[in-house]
Design a protein that fits this description.
By secondary structure, the protein is mainly α. It has three helices and no strands. The radius of gyration is 19 Å and the shape is elongated. The termini are far apart.
Length: 98
Amino acid sequence: MDPWTTDLLFTAGHHVLVFAIAGVLAFELGAVRRGLNGAEAARIARVDMWYGIDASFRPPEAEVLSVRQWLWAQVLVFALIPILAAAMARGAGFIAVQ
């Protein structure tokens, strides 16, 4: 296989995985809230299983807020990744070796 085709396949696979992770994060941000019942918690656990995390527990009401804060922190980091990658592609942070 020529390098161009290999690069295309890796790039396409990378983008599919990145958007899948973004979709799971968006779902969990909308689904995790106060007053979760057993069926909603089971649905969240099934989505977690898609990417290999066994979340078969139901967080207590007092911890739902901290879970949502953690999810928002993940969204923030996820948003920073392409911004920092674009800056690196344009030479930010490059140290010239003389």
